[in-house]
C-alpha cells in the first residue's frame, strides 16, 4: 500500500485564481459558465484567455496584404471585445480579467497558468482535426501533460455545482492527488472512490493452459476482489480521513468501465490522475486517461501530485 500525504477532506482550501482558456468556438459557453460558477463558489479571481495561433495571423496577413503587426493589434482588440461581451452575458464582471495572446495554445496556456499561479485551468475538450493534433493530441491533451496545476475539461453545459463526483483509484499517488483536488473543486459534492479491477486476459489464458479448474479461477477472482476492497478502504482512510466517502469496486477494462460510468446520469464529474504508477515519463498521459479524455460524456478533472 502506498503512503499518501495527510489531507483532511473537511478543510479543503479554496482556489484563489482560475484560468479559463476559451477558443471562442463550440462549447466555449459551457467552459465559461463552469469557470464562472467555480469562481463564485471559491471567491476566486477569474482570468479568461484566448490564444491566436501565429499560423492564423500569418495566413490572414498573407491574404489581406496587411502587416502582421497591424493585424495583431486589431485582432487582439476584437477578441478582447468578444471575451468581455461573453463575460458580461454571464453576469460576471467583477474580479475578472480578459487576456489575448499569440502563440502555440498549449504553451501559452501553461505559461500563463504559471505566471498567475492558477489553482485550476478550465478548458474544452478540443478537436483533433489536423495530422499534428492526431499525433500529439488536442490542445487539452497537451495542456494536461505540461500544466503545473489541475485541469478541468468541460464537456457539459453546467446547470448546477458538481454534486456527484467519481474518482478513479489505482492506489497511486496520482489518484490520491486526484481525490484531493476533486474535493477541493467540489467541497459539497458526494465523493465516490472507484477502483476497476482488470484481470489481464493473458493471466487467465495462462491459468487455463496450466489446467486451472474453474473453481480455482473463481477463487482467484474472489481473492482479488477481497484485496481490492481492503486496499480501497485503506486508501479512503488515508486520503479522505474520517470523511464519509462512497467506495465501489468494479470489474472490467478500466478505460471502458470509466467511459460507461461517465455516461451515467449519476456522475457530474469524473476525476483521475494523468497516468498510473507504471508510466515511465511523467509528461506522458496513461492509456486509461487518454481513453477517458477521448470518450467521456461528463466533465473530467485530471490532477496529479505537485
Describe this structure in words.
- The protein has about 300 residues and is an alpha/beta fold.
- The chain folds into two domains: about 1-155, Rossmann fold, CATH 3.40.50; about 160-305, HUPs (Rossmann fold, 3-Layer(aba) Sandwich).
- Helix content is about 45%, strand content about 20%.
- The protein has helices spanning about 30-40, 55-65, 70-90, 105-115, 130-135, 140-145, 175-185, 200-210, 215-240, 255-260, 285-295, and strands at about 15-20, 45-50, 95-100, 120-125, 150-155, 165-170, 190-195, 245-250, 270, 300.
- Strands 3-2-1-4-5-10-9-6-7-8 form a ten-stranded mixed β-sheet, with helices on both faces.
- Strand 1, helix 1 and strand 2 (about 45-50) form a beta-alpha-beta unit.
- The chain is elongated, with a radius of gyration of 22 Å.
Largest beta sheet: strand ordering: 3-2-1-4-5-10-9-6-7-8
In CATH, the topology of the largest domain is named Rossmann fold
- Specify the number of helices: 11
The H/E string reads: EHEHHEHEHHEEHEHHEHEHE
Strand content: 15-25%
Give the proportion of residues in helices. 40-55%
**Main sheet overview:** 10 strands, mixed
- The low-confidence runs, each spanning 5 or more residues with pLDDT under 50, are 131-136, 278-283
Query: What integer is the average pLDDT?
Result: 84
Would you state the CATH class of the largest domain? Alpha Beta
InterPro entries: Rossmann-like_a/b/a_fold, Universal_stress_UspA, UspA
GO molecular function: ATP binding
Protein name: Nucleotide-binding universal stress UspA family protein
Domain UspA: 16-155, 164-302
Amino acid at each position: 500500500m502506498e503512503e499518501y500525504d495527510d489531507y483532511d477532506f473537511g478543510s479543503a482550501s479554496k482556489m484563489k485564481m482560475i484560468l479559463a482558456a476559451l477558443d471562442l468556438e463550440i462549447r466555449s459557453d459551457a467552459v465559461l459558465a463552469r469557470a464562472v460558477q467555480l469562481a463564485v463558489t471559491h471567491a476566486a479571481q477569474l482570468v479568461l484567455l484566448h490564444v491566436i495561433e501565429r499560423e492564423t495571423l500569418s495566413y490572414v496577413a498573407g491574404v489581406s496584404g496587411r502587416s502582421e503587426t497591424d493585424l495583431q493589434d486589431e485582432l487582439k482588440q476584437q477578441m478582447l471585445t468578444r471575451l468581455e461581451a461573453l463575460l458580461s452575458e454571464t453576469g460576471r464582471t467583477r474580479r475578472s480579467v480578459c487576456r489575448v495572446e499569440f502563440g502555440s495554445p498549449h504553451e501559452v496556456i501553461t505559461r500563463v497558468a504559471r505566471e498567475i499561479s492558477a489553482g485550476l485551468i478550465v478548458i474544452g475538450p478540443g478537436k483533433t482535426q489536423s495530422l499534428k493534433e492526431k499525433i500529439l493530441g488536442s490542445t487539452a491533451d497537451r495542456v494536461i501533460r505540461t500544466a503545473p496545476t489541475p485541469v478541468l475539461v468541460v464537456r457539459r453545459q453546467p446547470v448546477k455545482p458538481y454534486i456527484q463526483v467519481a474518482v478513479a483509484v489505482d492506489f497511486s499517488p496520482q489518484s490520491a492527488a486526484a481525490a484531493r483536488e476533486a474535493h477541493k473543486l467540489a467541497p459539497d459534492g458526494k465523493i465516490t472512490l472507484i477502483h476497476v479491477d482488470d484481470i489481464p486476459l493473458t493471466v487467465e489464458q495462462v491459468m487455463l493452459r496450466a489446467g486451472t479448474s474453474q473453481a480455482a479461477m473463481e477463487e482467484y477472482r474472489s481473492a482479488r476482489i477481497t484485496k481490492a476492497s481492503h486496499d480501497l478502504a485503506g486508501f479512503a482512510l488515508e486520503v479522505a480521513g474520517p470523511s464519509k466517502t462512497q467506495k465501489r469496486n468494479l470489474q472490467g477494462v478500466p478505460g471502458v468501465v470509466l467511459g460507461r460510468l461517465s455516461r451515467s446520469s449519476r456522475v457530474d464529474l469524473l476525476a483521475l490522475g494523468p497516468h498510473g504508477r507504471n508510466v515511465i515519463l511523467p509528461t506522458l498521459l496513461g492509456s486509461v486517461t487518454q481513453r477517458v479524455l477521448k470518450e467521456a460524456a461528463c466533465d473530467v478533472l485530471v490532477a496529479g501530485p505537485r
